[in-house]
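For reproducibility, we list the full input for the cytidine-5'-triphosphate complex.
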Amino acid sequence: MFESIFFKKKILLIIGGGISAYKVLEVIRELKKNGSEIKTILTKSGREFVTPLSISALSQNKVFENLFDPSNESEMDHITLARWCDVLLVAPATANLLSNFADGKASDFATTAILASNKPIFLAPAMNVEMWNKEINLQNVEKLKKNNFRFIGPTIGEMACGEYGEGKMSSVDEIIFTLKNYFISKNQKKKLSALVTAGPTREYIDPVRFLTNESSGKQGLEIAKSLSEIGFQTKLILGPNKLNLKNLSDLDIEHVKTGDEMLNACKENLPVDVAVCTAAVSDFKPKEVFKNKIKKDNLNTFELAFEKNGDILSFISQHNKNRPKLVVGFAAETENYIENAKKKLEHKHCDWIVVNNVKDSSIGFNSEFNEVFIINKNNEIEKLSKSPKSEIAKKLAHKIFEKLHNNVGNFN
Ligand code: CTP
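The corresponding predicted structure, in tokenized form, follows.
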């Protein structure tokens, strides 16, 4: 069993007054399960939504409410509490709390702790869409961002009041992912490196015609982004795609077209700590590429001869000198997917294989969602249930980090 990155991390949680406060109980539970220590400040309006009893039962710690409560342990004033923690999380961060923080108020336990803090502060806003979009609120948000407050969401969705739009508190998973990203990247004393292949390849017949497949490259891009977010030096070798690649300055992307180009780019980018091969590389390529456009004039039938493309995953997995510590393959299957994936894991000598059923059009190729099973060499299987590809990517990136972190020993 791996030690979670949350183990012994100290989190000061401020719970504001909003209907989504109930979700924060789940956040506490998840963090506790992973070994965090949690202390909580409950605001006066927060108390209208969740009880101190349920919070202290889950956090196994006292809940702080009144700044001048004589029953507070003498050493636990707002300053000591702010120094005690590794990070602060405010959830739900109401419009009122954002406004107070932006004004630098020190009028209760929550605002004084925030003002006294010298640690990273994460805010998970939750409010009605009109409140979120009010210019005055957006100005507060801007001011807070300029002052290094970190925002988790909000997201767009149906709200408790029945209206729809931006202002909904981020999901429990998203809050946990963000904190986890922070702790992982902080933990990387020596920067780990990653190589990710993604997208389809094009195998040219002549200068304007080629064979390709349905792969969008989305899942691979998300994995590269997630690895980069948690501090991996990440190289993405990307086949032809229609992805939005704006605002990805942290990611080193090399564009390739053919399987041969992808293989060569991978060779040039070894060694790395982890390789993740998500690309749908064409298995075959035409034996001959015509120099000029093929004319149909003199042809009634036309036959093409193919030869096998080099297998990039197998090449990396079996590299004598530069085999990455962890090699992850993907398997796109339409039937018997667990069995077929296990065979691929064995034949290609990788450490994990991530399999998805591409026959189901609601997941896999071209979909925003995915559902995968991660299989390791001991035939252990972990399911990542249907969720957006970005979430699957974060979970896989965290799992990769935890594996390297626990095996390599030169971290922490
Ligand atoms: N792969 C690769 N190079 C190739 C073919 C596949 O690196 N020339 C990698 C893929 O990136 C993926 C894994 O091998 O990580 C499995 O790919 P997949 O397309 O599912 O299977 P194939 O090996 O192509 O076998 P088949 O098409 O027969 O299922």
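The pocket of cytidine-5'-triphosphate is lined by residues 197, 259, 277-281, 283, 309, 311-313, 329-332, 344, 348 (CB under 6 Å). Confidence is low (pLDDT under 50) at residues 408-412. Both points were considered when choosing residues for closer inspection.
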